Amino acid sequence: MSMKINCSILTPDKILYDGQVHFAVVQAYDGEVGFLYNHAPLVSELGIGEMRLRTGDITEYMVVEGGFVEIKGNNLVILAESAYKKEELSKETIENRIKEIEATEKKTYEQRLMLDIDLKKQKARLKVASR
Amino acid sequence: MATQREIRKRIKSVASTRKITKTMEMVSTSKMKKMQNRMLMTRPYSEKIDHIIANLRDSGVEDVVDPLLQERAEASRILVLMITGNRGLCGGFNTNVIDNTLAMKNRLTIEEGKEVLLSVIGKKGINYLRFINEPVYKTALNLEDKLTFDDAAALGNELISLFLNGEVDEVYISSTRAVSSSAQKPMITRLLPITPERREVEQSTSDFHVQYIFEPSPYKIFSSLLPLYIKVKIYTSLLESGYSEQFARRVAMKNATDAATEMARELTVHYNRVRQAKITNEIAEIVGGAAALE
């Protein structure tokens, strides 16, 4: 018997993932949320972090950077502001970017805020890329 | 009457023009297909956002006052974001949008005494407004196929902060919308403050019994969903405008190619007639000369 949920991950540019999974974990605004078969209807805001989709013994890793998640009747929809699969990420470019950010002088408050968010995103990407 | 050589030259030039327009038609056809694909990729995303907003409304967020939803009683400064193309040779695509925008601006400034700021995207729009000496608030090039969601998001953030700071009271988008895959129309829609879309009501009745858990509160989700909604709106407007531009160019180039084909045909007929007349003339001369000798 299959206890799978239909999972689709949408970004404004494309459909990143569309398929059936046993178990999905996404990064919500204040921590991780896991979804199993027959989850109650829920809408939640997403944070910056990792997503894991497990089907059988295979786990796929992705990174999500803000957005929303909705589940209803075993249909899980993730509306990401941006999201990448593990294969799309290159560890080297991310590490370079992190160094670059850390080396940049933060002058104004806004600039610091922007860079902090960027750094958070890069770190999340790095985590997924090193899986 | 044109000589044979002149006509031949014209046929040649028409044929080479035809070759160019034919190629341009093919180029814009392939660009159009690409744009159409991107447009279709965005559609599920924006539909889902509409859907979530509808669900939030059902759970009683209706009466929430988000600054992005709030109408200003005395809207005096209005920003119009006009989206045109970077290039011409696409029939009435650019002029339609510009005419539409200027007509609205005139109506608002003269009849209602409001101040209208124009923010223009696309070289054609910028150049035209400069030509007629129309002051422009801000300009940017149309990124065409290099457009990413991040660009649209940056633009969205800028407009949102202008609106929230009270620098402008209303924001409109004037662009070409793709009504269907074969019909485009220049349209002006209001972006800010957000007008609640009523069409969701019928759809939401079917889901009415579903009670969602909202994490964090529905109000918080609502207020962080709205900026995303704006950004997606801008993004789709830009994509639709890009698609319409390629579509308009394809049609214009198709007409040009057809006209060139017809012209080449007429010229060839004319050329043959001139050639035949010349031969007849020569024979008549020879016959005449021979008759004179006898």
Descriptive account of the structure:
The complex is a heterodimer of chains A (131) and B (294). By secondary structure, chain A is of the alpha+beta class. Chain A folds into two domains: 5-86, Sandwich (ATP Synthase, domain 1), CATH 2.60.15.10; 90-129. Chain A is built from two helices and eight strands, in the order ββββββββαα. The relative contact order of chain A is 0.18. Chain B has a domain at 63-247: Pyruvate Kinase, Chain: A, domain 1 (3-Layer(aba) Sandwich), CATH 3.40.1380.10. Helices cover 63% and strands 14% of the residues of chain B. The two termini of chain B are 34 Å apart. At the A-B interface, strand 5 and strand 6 of A face helix 1, helix 4, strand 6 and helix 6 of B. Strand 5 (42-55) of chain A pairs parallel with strand 6 of chain B.
Supply the key terms:
A: 131 residues, alpha+beta, ATP Synthase, domain 1, 2 domains, B: 294 residues, alpha/beta, five-stranded mixed β-sheet, 6 helices, 63% helix
Number of strands of chain B: 6
List unreliable stretches of 5+ residues of chain A: none
**How much strand content do the residues of chain B show?**
5-15%
Task: Please report the two chains with the greatest interface, counting residues with C-beta closer than 8 angstroms to the partner's C-beta.
Answer: A-B, 25 and 33 residues
What's the name of the CATH homologous superfamily of the domain at 63-247 in chain B? ATP synthase, F1 complex, gamma subunit
Radius of gyration of chain B: 29 Å
The global form of chain B is elongated
How would you summarize the topology of this molecule?
The complex is a heterodimer of chains A (131) and B (294).
Chain A lengths: L4 E6 L4 E7 L1 E6 L2 E5 L6 E14 L2 E15 L2 E6 L2 E3 L5 H13 L5 H21 L2
Parallel strand pairs in A: 1-7
Antiparallel strand pairs in A: 1-2, 3-4, 3-5, 5-6, 6-7, 6-8
Chain B lengths: L3 H58 L15 E7 L9 H20 L2 E7 L1 H9 L6 E3 L8 H16 L5 E11 L2 E10 L7 H7 L6 E3 L2 H76 L1
Parallel strand pairs in B: 1-2, 1-4, 2-3
Antiparallel strand pairs in B: 4-5
Helix pairs in contact in B: 1-6, 4-6
